[in-house]
Structure formats: structure tokens, C-alpha cells
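Justification of resources, computational component.

The compute hours requested in this renewal are based largely on the per-chain cost of generating structure records like the one below. Each record pairs the submitted sequence with a full C-alpha cell output. That output is archived, and it is also reused by downstream analysis tasks.
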Amino acid sequence: MKKLIITVLIALSPGLLKAQSEGDQLRQEGNLLGAVKAYKEAFLQKPEDQKNTYRLASTIALLYQMPDSAYHYLNIALETDSSLWVLADTDMISLKEDPRWKDIEEQQLRKYQLAHGPLKDPEYARELLSMIGDDQALDYYIDMAKGYFAKNGTVPHWYYPLGKMKYDIAAGNFERLQQLLQEKGWPDYSKVGKLAADALLLAINHHESDAVREMFVDRIKEACLAGEGSCMEYAKIQDRILVNKGELQVYGMQFRYGKDRKLEPFPVENPEYVDQRRKAIGLEPLKVYLKRKIDFDWTVEQKND
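The structure output for this chain reads:
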């Protein structure tokens, strides 16, 4: 009992919580070196804290400078992790050219299948997971640019090359996905798992052409309703098609900057019934989603037929 009490006290150490909170704040502000220092302090206090150790590894990876250190902490963080998230984590993009990344992919796919059962096509899953990471590459730095815009009202000059690089990545991803679709068919959840299946939808949603989204939206909806695809991504794609046509969105998934430079949803068709439409495809109420996603207060009273 005494040992248990001591363990609980260590877990709730104010110093540990302060270091982790400081690391999160510094990372959000763009001070990656400061965040690494804070997470390391927390690691020294509680090396078995998997979440903190993973955060430390991913922050080091964002620096693009210390791959050995990033891999050191990443392997510690993944010792008891049987998920596939790391294979899709955009923060790890700088590590993917290293030969050690192949080992990470293989070990996580092995552990995932031991824990959750075999995938019908694990190699297809691996490629799709890699594409999620590629598709969202540079997002941390682009988020820093968005923060700069929200604060200063101007787009920083260093955003433009990042935007071009992200555009090129998305184009390359889509070409590869078209090949995979021809070779392996539609990536249902039962074939590649939920996380990997969402890679295709991300690539479609981020493609420059609405013609591409319109080409696939019915198939995406079909998978959503069958429980074999993401209804969240379907809603985003459907709303993006509508917004880009100058029409009202139906699920409230697309945002714009308002006059105060804060994000707000594009206008919604029959907004008093939006939760009824969202519930029909398994989505949470719009009020809850917008508050969590962009800290926006949705106040439209809802009705049901």
C-alpha cells in the first residue's frame, strides 16, 4: 500500500505536470527547443510516462536536426504501444527517410495485428498510413503561420513556400492513390483498418480540384453509411464541394476567417436542422464540434422533423 501511495504521488507531482504543461505551451508558441527542454525535464521525473515521451520524440523530430535523439525517445514511447498512429503522425515526417523508419513500421503493424487481429492487406495499410503523414506534412509550421495571421492580420512571407510544398505533396499523393485504387480496390475499414482507410479521404479532400471530390463523394458516402468509412471525412468533403460552388453547406464542417480574424463556419443550409443531419451519419452536435475544433459558440436552436 505504501508503494502504491508513493507511486500515485509521483504521478501527480506538481513539478511533472508543470514541465509537461510548459512543454505543450512552448510547442504551441513555436519554441521547439524550449519545449524539448521541458519535456526532457518531465521525462527525467517520470520516464514511464508514454505520452510525454512520445511528445518529446515528436518535438525533436520537428526540429529536423537530431534524428538519433528522436529515435531514442520514440522507441521508448512505443514499447507498450500497439497502435498505428505513429505511422501516420505528420510530426514524424523528418524521420521517414531514415532506414530505421522501416523497422518502426514493421514493429507497429505486427503489434497492432497481435492486439486487434490480422488486417486483410497490411501492406496496403502501411502505404496509406504513410500517405496520411505525407499529406499533412508541414502542418505544424503552417499552423504557426495561421497563428501569425490571427495575431497580426498579415500572412508571413515564409508561409508561401510551405504552401507550395504542401500542394506538391498532395498532388503526388493523389497520383499514387489512384494507382493503389486500381491495384487493390477501395480501402474499407475491414481491409486496412480505420486510420489507414482515412488516408484516401484526406487526399481527396485536400486535392485542388472539386472535380476529384465530386468523382468520389458518392462512394465515400456509401462507405460511411455501411460503417466501412469515415462519416466525418465524408461530411467535410461534401461541405467543401458545396462551399466551393458558393452554396450553403449541410454539416457545418467548413470554416472561414471572419472580420475579427477568428474562424467561423461558412453559412449552413437550414441551420436549425443541422444536428438532425449530422446525427443521421453518426456525428456529434455541431455546437460541440465547433467549440472543440475552433472555439466557436454555435447558438442556433435545433429542431427535429
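The chain has 16 helices and two strands. Residues 84-208 form one domain.
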